[in-house]
Amino acid sequence: MKDAVDKFLEELKNSDLDLHSMALIYDGEVVDKRYFEPFREDTLQRMYSVSKSFVSIAIGFLQEEGKLRLSDPILSFFEEYSPEIVCPELARMTIEDMLRMETCHAGTTYKSNPREPWVPSFFSKKPHHEPGMIFMYDTSSSDTLCALAERLSGKEILTYLREKCLDEIGFSREAYVMRNRFDEAMGGSGLMTTTDDLVKFAILLMSGGKFRGRQLLPKGYIKQATSFQTATRMRDGVREERQGYGYQFWRLTHNGFGCYGKGGQFILCYPDKKLALVTTADTTDSREGNQVIFNSLYRNIFPAVTDEKRICGEENESCADRTGIFLPGEGKRYECQGGAFWDWLEFREEKVIFGRKEERYELAVGWEEAVKGRFPLYGHECMTKAVGLDHKSIYLQTKFLGEYMASFEMQASFRDDRLLCYMKNTQDFDYEEFKGWIQARR
C-alpha cells in the first residue's frame, strides 16, 4: 500500500498541487497518514463545505428526536423573518428541499447584500423558482439549516454534535465552527478542525454510523443522506461534481459519496472498496485541481486494494446518467411564465418543441444515442442526446457541428403540473434565448 500512496503523492506533486495532509483508510483502519509542512496533527484547518455534512447530521438527529420532519416548511420555524407578503414558493420550501440544495433561490442569498444578516436574507430574498425541482448550490441554505439546528437543540452546532456523537468518537476539543459578524454560525463553510477529526468522522460514515458496535448516527437518515437524492449534471465543475447529491453529501463515481470542501478539503468514501481518503489542500489556483486528486486516487490506490488493472471499473464508474425514458408530461403543452422568450414547451420521446406565437421549433432528441438535427430558431447542424437523471428530471446535451464548436445543456424537471428548465450554452454569439431559466405550467 505504501508504494501506491507514494505514487499517488508523486502524481499530485508533479501536478503542482498544494497538499496539506492526507490519510488513507481501508477496512476501518488508517493504513497511511501524512502531513506536509507547516501542517501538523494538531493544526486546525478550515474545512469549508465539509461543514455542510456535519449540519446534515445534526438535522438527522433532530428528526430522530421528533423535533422536526423533513417535510416541514422551513418558514414555520422562522416566522419572525417572514415577509409581509409571503411568496408561495417560499411557503412551500421544505427542510428536505434545502438538504438537497433544491431551494427556491438561484444562489447564495446573503451575497446580494453583505450588510444583511445571513439567515434573514434566506427569507427576505425574493424566490427565483419553484423549490424541490432543480439542484442549485446555495450555502445560505446550509447556514439556515445550521441556525435551525441551534434553535431546536438550544446549543451551538458543534456542542450539540459533540453530545450526540463527536465526543464519543474522539473529536478534538479545540475544533469549532466560525461565526460571522452577525454572530451566526457559518454552518455552510466555517468548520475549523484537524485532519484526524475528519478521519474519525470518515470511519464513522464508512461504518454506516456505527461505533464500537453501537448505532451512533440515525441509521435510516445516514443512508438517505449519502444516497443519490438529486441530479447535479448541470453544475459547472469537475466530473465528480456532476454525479449527484444527497442531503449535504456529494455522490461520487464508483458508487462513492463524500464531504466536499473548497480547495480540496475532502472525505471521500467508497463502501464497495472498503476505502476512504481524507485530504486537506489548497487547489484554489487550479480549476481542475480537485479532479487531479480523484484521478490519482483511482489510478494509483484503487488497484492496490482491488487488484484492478484498469483505471476505472466499468461498473459504477459514473452515477451521473440514469439512462431511461422519463417523460411524465409527454405530449402535454407547458405554458411559459414570467416573461420568458418562449411561449410554450412540449416534450416528446423523439423531440423537444419550443413554441413562440404561431411558430414552433423542433429539436430532434435521441435516448442513449445522439441523433442529428437542426437547432431550433438558428438552424445550425447538431447532435442531441437525452438521459433520465432521476424520478423527475431529464437532461439534454447538444453538440454543434460544422462551423460552431459549442454545446447546449438543459435540465427539465417535472413536478405535478409544473415544469422548471435550466439552460446554458457555450456559443460565442446570440443564443440568449437558450440561457437561464424557464418556468412553465400545464
Q: How many strands, what sense, and barrel or not for the largest sheet? A: 11 strands, mixed
Q: What is the tally of helical segments?
A: 10
**Poorly predicted runs of 5 or more residues:** 308-317
Distance between the termini: 58 Å
Quaternary state of the chains: single chain
Q: How many extended strands? A: 22
What is the mean predicted local confidence, pLDDT? 93
Q: Can you give the helix content as a percent range?
A: 10-25%
Into which percentage range does the β-strand content fall?
25-35%
Give me the secondary-structure category: alpha+beta
- Taking all Cα atoms into account, the compactness measure Rg is 23 Å
Q: What is the approximate shape?
A: globular
